[in-house]
Structure formats: structure tokens, C-alpha cells
């Protein structure tokens, strides 16, 4: 198994147990580009140089990595140097412990707050009992445990939820702070809300019901990467480069929404019947997910 991204304790009132967090995602992109000089075809290299030398355009050698430290600009052109050891020794309790401050409904974890997922396991066998009791209690109550954890140079709000009915593990999701989200009203306030025809609404519900199925994410692939691969292959083999087709022009004749809905469900004469009772609206929130069989590998920062 990969090394944990973070290890520490979960503290719920007087109950504490050790956990390990593993990054649940990994990049699968296989196409990468380098910067190349159009004139010579050589690869461009970037070097870190002193600002004074760059501004004067003088020839200079690159600054070595061991000479570079972090600096905070407290006044224009004035910096205070921060040593790596000073950052490592910051007094932040959440570096070592996720102190659960409250429990919330899983449905209250709106998707726009969710930032990144992690697999959560007991840190050792001694922690397994408390881990499993808390996991099952969260599953039965439909709750998520909310706390804070420090890693990657910041303190994150984090939510702990069961990984699903068929999994013995838990999932953790780091959450965005409210001030990191733009104000939705700035984008939604000018949307017009015309009166809705009840027959059109029922037809739309029927269309949704007919097209509804269980999500199988394995059916989706990155079309952009596929197109880039085709472009690279064509250029390597001196073949014609595939180009994007011009988008189809909108039809000049105006089709009513009702007609479009009727044709979409396959009949011009279909009546506007209510969708089957089995068609349920999508659940709000991040939900409870199944843990994939294969563990994700930790990515270096």
C-alpha cells in the first residue's frame, strides 16, 4: 500500500482513534508538452535568477536551490525571510488531530464546497474498533463529521463520511471556505423566469425518466486527450492534421419547446404523462460513495 498522505488522530469529545489519509485521485493524462523554440526546435529551459540581473539583462548564473528561501513582502520591495523549519514548527493543533466540532446531514455538503477526496483507514489494529463504531454510527444516522486538518500549507475544513454500505472504510473530503466561493447571486440574478407550461414540464420529466440510469463513470473517457493523441500521431507520420468541424448552424425555423420535447421522447402524439414513480430527483450533497478496489497512489506535491 502507498504511504499515507497524513496520519493523526480523530478526536470526538473523549473518544480518540488514529487514522491514515490517502489521496483518492491520480492524474491519468498521458499527453504532456514541452516549450520549444520555433526557430531552432530546441527545448526551452527555465532558470531562477536574481531579479536585479533579470531587469538589467546581464548574463548571470542560475541561483542554486539551497540558496532559495521563502519570503513575505510586508512592504513594497521589503521581505521577511521565513525558514522551512519555522513553518514546520507552527503551532497548529490540527497538524496532528482532526477535532470533530459538529455533525451535519450528508445532504448539507453541497458539491460546490467539496474540494478533494481522500481514503480513510484505521492507523493500526488498536484503532479499528473505535473507527468501525464511528463509521457505522455515521452510516445509520446519515451524518458527516466535520473538523479541521492541516496539510499542504494550509488548514482545511474536512468532512468524514462512510465509504458506502459494502466498504469497511471511510472517505474524507476537504471543503472550501465560504470566501473561496464566488457569490452565486452575481451570476443568477439576471436569469429570467418565464411562466412554465405544465404539459411541457411533465414532458420534460418523462424525458428525464426515460434517460435515467445508474451512473457508470467507466463509460466516459477524455475526448480532448484522444483528439490530442490523434493530432500528435498525424504530425509524427506526416499525415493530414484533423481539424474541428464547423458547428452546425441553428435551424432557421423555430421549433416550439413542446414539439422538441415530444420528438425527444420519440413520439409526436405522446401524451404528457407523469413520469414513473421510480424516477427520483437527484440527491443533494456529496452522498456516500463506494471505495474503488484499487488504492490510489500518493502524488508528490
Molecular structure report:
This protein has 301 residues and is of the alpha+beta class. 23% of the residues lie in helices and 22% in strands. The protein contains 7 helices and 10 strands. It has helices at residues 51-56, 84-88, 125-141, 185-188, 198-211, 223-236, 257-264, and strands at 6-12, 15-23, 70-75, 78-82, 97-99, 102-105, 114-122, 143-151, 154-162, 170-175. The strands form 2 sheets. The protein has an 8-stranded mixed sheet, covered by helices on one side. Strands 3-4 form a two-stranded antiparallel sheet. Strand 3 and strand 4 form a beta hairpin. Helix 5 (198-211) runs parallel beside helix 7 (257-264). Residues 288-301 have low confidence and may be disordered.
Could you give the topology of this structure?
Elements: E1 6-12, E2 15-23, H1 51-56, E3 70-75, E4 78-82, H2 84-88, E5 97-99, E6 102-105, E7 114-122, H3 125-141, E8 143-151, E9 154-162, E10 170-175, H4 185-188, H5 198-211, H6 223-236, H7 257-264
Parallel strand pairs: 1-5
Antiparallel strand pairs: 1-2, 2-7, 3-4, 6-8, 7-10, 8-9, 9-10
